[in-house]
Amino acid sequence: MDRTAALPAAARRTRRIVLAGPTVLGAALVAFLAQRPLRHHHAGWHGWLGTVNGVVFLTAAGLPLAALVVRVLARRRTAVGSPPELARRRSLAEVGIVYGTVPWVWMILLPGAGAGTAPRRVSAVPLRDLVAVLSGAPVTATVQVVGNLLVFAALGFFAPVRFAALASVPRILALGAGCSVLVEAAQYVLWLDRVSSVDDVLLNAAGAGLAALASHRWWRSAADTSAVTACSRRAAAGPPPPARRCVR
After folding, report:
1. Which residues of 22-58 are buried (b: 16+ CB within 10 A; e: fewer)?
2. Sign, CA torsion 218/107/131/123
3. 104-131 b/e with 16+ CB inside 10 Å = b?
4. Region of 75 on the Ramachandran plot (φ > 0 left; ψ -120 to 50 alpha; else beta)
5. Residues forming a β-bridge with 196
6. How far apart are CA 7 and CA 16, in angstroms?
7. Does the reported pTM lie above 0.90?
């Protein structure tokens, strides 16, 4: 008997999301290491947490642990009465937001060689830095642009699935821009020898918005599942008033 065929359509979609994430990150890790071999110039923890290569490697290596956390959270929710599909969706979204965002933010907050000594730099003219990057080497330009688009992509993808109040592309754009402004301000205040650029804010927000569009098909089903759950809880508590009857 084919157990995959017996799964509900929503469960199969959730499984595809879970499998797609590690696949994409794994491919990105292979491409990254093929271009820039894993070398640590500093011994100890700094080699793992203080370099881009180290953070990328740890992020990929931690995928099984992230999957385990999703499973544990889903089981805990199911044990207290949450529908299995809703439990899986919320758990995956929560872990995805954290696991897909923290490593990127960590990397762009790593100090440069002149941290604490080089002059602080701010680029407040829109598109100036982007044009300069695109006019350079194609590979470098692609890495920088794609990297900026991915910083808050996980946040943009999973936040509207998890939180109904964020199920809107304009709201996700605003959220991505706000988070990016905080990161750019941190780069300036912490004196990290990095350029605080308005173009980074634009690319970060655009990446979050594009990711939100990619997950749009799951917004409606998540909202429907939440509404049914709330309706069931109200019904279990007693008959609702006539004006607030649950419609299924």
Report:
1. eeebeeebeebeeeeeeeeeeeeeebeebbebbbbbe
2. positive
3. bbebbebeeeeeeeeeeeebeeeeebbe
4. alpha
5. 122
6. 12
7. no
Q: In which residue are the tokens 């009465």 written? A: 81
pLDDT digits (tens, 9 = 90+) for 202-240: 999 999 999 999 999 998 665 555 555 555 555 555 555
Cα-based distances in Å from 199 to 40, 127, 181, 186: 30, 6, 11, 16
Cβ atoms of 198 and 125 closer than 8 Å:
yes
Question: In the 8-state DSSP scheme, what is residue 196?
Answer: E
Q: Which amino acid is at 13?
A: R
- Using alpha carbons, select from 96, 86, 93, 81 the residue that is nearest to residue 10: 86
Q: CA-to-CA distance for 208 and 187, rounded, in angstroms?
A: 20
